[in-house]
Amino acid sequence: MRLAVITDIHGNAAALDAMLEDAASRGLRDIICLGDIASGAGWPRETVEMLQATGIPCVRGNHDRWISEHDPETMGKQDRLAYDELSADQRRWLLDLPQALEPAPGVLAVHGSPGQDVQNLIEEIVAERLRRAPMAVLRERLGEAGMAARVVLCGHSHRTGLVQVPGGPLVLNPGSLGLPGFRISREPAHRQEAGSPHARYAVLHLDGTAPPQVEMLAIAYDWEAAAKRAEDVGFNAAWPHVLRTGLLPESA
């Protein structure tokens, strides 16, 4: 089995469309999405419609949940754009997505960590940057369900990562499909930069009892169109800049 893994689209329908074309060119039929689907500076409605039309199984991310749970008047700009552009039925679809899926025997798919959609699984925050968490921390976050799995698929951090837990699962984060960098100002403040504007996804290869193999992919797409869309819907300079470069303005 070959399973394409995407996560953290954040309303970037241009990146999703390019990924689907790339997957088709590789003969990939099985795809799973790990959440944070619509909230962003892009095309929330079109992104949801594409996923619904293709029937791609999705787990729910924290932003998918927040769009329904938070008061629109207190939402951040990316959640408010999604709230305004999505129908009530589309918002309900996002809220009703499962917190976890098993796309193949022994494979656990979550957004953040098992049971917590706002907790990074592989990383910890040090000096406002993400770095790989100690193995003891990773084991604790995996919990019983994660440690029992053969493979755990996660997102949320937007940071590509692959960790083999001794005596436990292979943990895979494909990186963000639609948002290659961000800055969080609330505590704990931190930032993440992919370093390039490419759309990232992964392919998990499963072949019987053989060790799983992984391809990490970074594909070109029309990121200028995505950046222009962010400008057109009124986002400040940082969001278009990171879409164009994969870097925050201060790093560039």
Automatic annotation (TrEMBL):
Organism: Neoroseomonas terrae
Name by which UniProt lists this protein: Metallophosphoesterase family protein
Calcineurin-like phosphoesterase domain sequence ranges: 1-183
Family in the record: Belongs to the metallophosphoesterase superfamily. YfcE family.
